[in-house]
Write a structure and sequence with these properties.
Shape of chain A: globular
CATH superfamily of chain A: Dehydroquinase, class II
Number of strands of chain A: 5
CATH architecture of chain A: 3-Layer(aba) Sandwich
Number of domains of chain A: 1
Oligomer: homododecamer
Helix content of chain A: 25-40%
Order of helices and strands of chain A: EHHEHEHEEH
Strand order of the largest sheet of chain A: 2-1-3-4-5
Number of helices of chain A: 5
């Protein structure tokens, strides 16, 4: 692991999360992904961590980035969005690395369609945080910090 | 929405549709995707619309393009092929935009394997046209034109 | 096949479609079945076809009419409504005849109750058109005309 | 709604209920459908309502009558018998009208075969009464009277 | 039971069986329903029974006829065709009468679609004969004759 | 059975029914459980019966009370609320006693979540009344009175 | 095929059928398997065929015998009893040979436990006869004779 | 709501959580429920809230307490343990109140038995936090504080 | 573990077992739970063990008692009755303790309703004894004695 | 029943039980089937019964032996091993005889693979004993002795 | 293990494989099982191994032979044919021995009936080879040789 | 097909296979994908074929490469890893080309999670090889060589 990794969390956002805030504000609120990045980065800084914050619509790119996080980061915060429910590839990537992954969802997926109740991420994640909107990213940072503190 | 959008339909084709006509002609006929593009473009022109006609084998690229269509087109014609049956990501992209999406399939998917009977596209599509071969694209254009005429 | 058949499409409407327009206009719109018959007949006339337009609430009568259409019509447009989801008898009638049947639904059945997602009509239909409201009948006529043109 | 409607309940009985009393008396008791009609009519008269009491073995005829009841009656009592478990058409007819429908079953359908545990009527009915034998029709009349009293 | 009943078998044929022989001869053979009636009637006559041979496409009419058979016939031969797989009403009619019902199918339904593997008729039928083509009607007559001989 | 039993109905209410009227009045109406008790008691008195009206949030207490009702009451009216769908223990208690139990639900459970469509109470209840709001308790009293009258 | 084959039907009986008649006579009647063999043999003789009548409790022996029947008999009558519902091996043996196999069951398996409703024999059998008791073997002989007559 | 409520969070722990720490330390760690209460209370105090921390093995008592929390607390943290997966009663209690409920689990339930993957709590909870051990209670307090801050 | 524990078995009986013998004697026999306690206690005494014999209708009380048994007894005999099939809480309590638990059922639960075929107790029990009536308690005592003898 | 039968229990062991003790001792212990036979025989002798102890890998042989036990033994102890979960033939053999059958399993099958949770033996067995290792055979002997004592 | 074992592979073939080549050559090719034995034996000889090549239609005999292979062979090649999909007994035999078992199928079972997609052999086999026809036996020999080479 | 194709096999590896050897060596062994490429290439060279060996984490890229293989290679060896279980797109690509595809898996997928037991690749693959680790690639090369030799 390189030096930067010891001070970085990788924050990965999946398909359609780039549309946050600019569309369907009545449902998803008016906060954009950039604003989540800004507030999360500020909060992380207070805990002594930098964030590497990314978004992609491609499943395989999430796999690439999770693999990359194994050496570039101390922890991963993953909001895989729709791929949460369909991607065995992401499941396998998480299972293959040693860095803790915290699963985050903005909305309460359990109150939505049946097919969103199953997650291929959860059983290999360190933990799950869901339903708290943008605040979930803050909680995930705190969860990672707590976990790393316990291990050291 | 920019000016071009008011005169454009985005036509998106999913995995393996690039093989149309050149392979398995006994099953899929001898019409190529290029020929479908040509005949569809000609028909659209008669109704006053241009077509932006594309194909990709990558799920995330379809998500990108659907998002793009939200501002670049008046309507989307989507033949998601195999991703129709597995992609929650495409479902979410369609749900996130306001432009009407018409789902098209060349073959009668309901007369094929069980796993092709479910579509993640249908419940967020404006409508579904399936089983009419290349002619389905013509009908989809007419459907979009009719829909836009009713709204105006 | 008699002479009239070569110029006629049989349009069959199933249970409760006689209530269209006069009830629940907020859901089904204010267009009545008579108005659909009128606009469809006008459109068909432009393509050189007459329509034999009927409605019944009885499953067996739909079976009778589909059998009749085998000799009296060049094509059948079938909106079997509720029987779509429960009638093996209608499925068998369609399978037994050589005239192409186009399945039409006014609403997007895939966005409704789970039990409306399966159709006993689809796998023996020539094609399916659903979700476009009354305009779906126009598209079905065009689909049949296109199909017959290709065959001749 | 015509004048008679304001004083009439339509009582609809489905397949095989015409056999009541004359067959399998050890199971269904010795009360005939005519006797149920007589006792129900007498009870309804006490509450100020007339009954329009009918039986048919044909699913589509039940659909016809339910539609008819929308204008000819203040309420409908429906014992759809076997069609309860298979008829989406009856479900749709009830959903299409504004007159309250009370679902009645003579036997306790929940103590019988698995396929009798689901009803296509229940979720669109105003309420369900089951297992009380012929007395269920009396209770259904009282239920309708109570409902109409609350609304007025 | 009237006098004729003691010498009559009721033979009931369900939806689309009227098309036998004239359509899809490669599948169903070239024997028409009339020819089956003729050969069956001849065979029954040898055993001392007359046949009352009917066909309908309407589920409720089959229910009517089964009820009628309770007093007009010594036994019923029922080929309910598509309604075999969907009709609880026919199941209940058979359960309500004391005359033995023999279920017949021309084709081997167990070698066809999954939804044809379940029969609502079988568990209340005296027995089942399937897969022997028109010869199945002859076997059903013999089965009924044998059953009645054993009871007397 | 003691003397009081011959004049008493036990009315048992399950979890969260104590909240009726004071919360979510837009859904459950403004009638409280106390008011239901009052109106039911008044109606029962007219039929010559007293009510023993109770509520608990504990499954086992409902089992206790049902057992108690076997000797203390002539009939039981049971609105087991949420435990309806999960309690085999309540099912067994009802099956173990000889006093008739009428199942009541305020709302139409069949129009709610899938897991509310199954009842462990129904198949051992004398009958079911559901969807009529507070009036259901009145109907249940009448049902019990009718049942007891028939038996005497 | 040897000479005897042209005049022989192989009749194969599966597990526990050797107990017929001597046990549970109230259920299975008092007819023994030997008596069925005797009456069947007599009937077959009238049609010009000898019977090779056997019973075993071992699945693999039934497979052996079915294979043997391919050359030693003109047709096979198979009552596989319990193995009907579990044996893919018997299914494959029947599929591998060209001699017609008629499936016979004494009782109406469709009126028994759920797991007896599926047969691995039916879809490869020429036809099925079930529910007629010992008479079913007579009908099966007639069915085979009819089939062979049609082919010659 | 009384005055204390504005400064109190109710923390409810379900069956077997009283055994934490003293048993199976290799699985659940050596932290006892008392220690979780202590650390949670300390953390809550820093945010200006008191905790009302309880444990019970009885489902109905959890229902009682959730109802009580509607007026006695500003938010509820619920670790329903085993009842999470079986209790519709708890689901209904949460749905009936207006106070936000945060669902917490010590272990990652999604990595355990299939029947622990479904929660009757999640779809009515404000959010879910799972897999972070005792630290999950701290995160839940922060989540509630954040939620209340956003609303004020 | 205290001194008494080394000589005591805890025998826990779930809902409705208090009704044994006094009700439905044709089904459950005329032996009461008190008589089972007496005969079991006598048998246990011969093996050198005392019994702590209890019954409750409340799921959570069974959980309490199982936890208590962890220190008060050498083994637990558990007839959880209806809760056997629904209680994850009881499952978790058994999994949390080190004392062996023998599951007992009076009746053969596998010959009853489908939902009684699954037990949440079995996979964490030391063993299962079912179908032997009151004698099952004697066998369970012997099983525990044997188990403890093997361990010492 | 012959004289020996009145003093004999038949003990039948299914596939792979001949490997006990010599293989996988860490899982199945070091006790061989011969040792189980020896200890069981000794215990049975104390109760006045001889054992006829057998093992086979062939399903049909188990059927043969169960049938044989109907006259040669007073009771049968059956460990059908793998055939427990797949053999309808063994189920039918047990159902066909009047001698009580006790089902025994060495391991706790309910804590193993899902497909071992269902037994075709249980619902026709007199009772089930599972999870107690070799001691289960001793308990089964006692169970049979107790059963026979109650009947005499 | 005896001396021969170190140089022998046991090749076991299940039901109906004795019919290979002589029947249905259009499906299974014209290669007989004897020819497969010959070519496999020749290939094995080149790798220094002898083959013990057998076929049976009896499930229990396959179990016997697998047990025998534990001491008589260095590896087992198993084509269990139909028993692949139904035999827990064969599964258990493989699990009980230490010799590696390679599962072979001539046809691509995954392209056939649904019930052939599950194998009770696969999860305890060392590996699976399917779809390559007779060549699969050659590959299985090479696979075993490779495995043994890696271990030595 | 170009000249190179006649001497090349395309070897495609899916998501996370790039991590082989460097991570989780206790599970996947210490062999890297590069080493597999080296040993496979050497083996292929001996059979006269070159390998075009690739890896990607993106589903659509696998589709691209399979299409490319249709003209660039004589055969394809496909280890689709996680996409095996979710990708209809890969299924369709294989079905669309004429080059034989051999499915390979390093681990025994049938001994892992339920969702890894289904493969969208298998039914369109020429054959399947699984569970043999890196040696599986060698076997797949031999399988392709054998297949091509048989065809020529």
């Amino acid at each position: 692991m390189n030096d930067t990794a010891s001070q970085t969390f990788l924050v990965l956002n999946g398909p359609n999360l780039n549309l946050l805030g600019t569309r369907e504000p009545e449902t998803y609120g008016s906060v954009t992904l950039s604003e989540i990045e800004a507030s999360s980065t500020a909060h992380a800084a207070q805990t002594g961590y930098a964030l590497d914050f990314r978004q992609t619509n491609i499943e395989g790119t999430l796999v690439d980035w999770i693999q990359e996080g194994a050496t570039s980061a101390k922890g991963i915060i993953l909001n895989a969005a729709a791929y949460t429910h369909t991607s065995v590839a992401i499941h396998d990537a998480i299972a293959a690395i040693n860095v803790p992954v915290v699963e985050v969802h903005l909305s309460n997926v359990f109150a939505r369609e049946e097919y969103r109740h199953h997650s291929y991420v959860s059983d290999v994640a360190a933990g799950v945080i869901c339903g708290f909107g943008p605040h979930g990213y803050i909680l995930a940072i705190d969860a990672l910090v707590g976990m790393l503190r316990d291990q050291s």
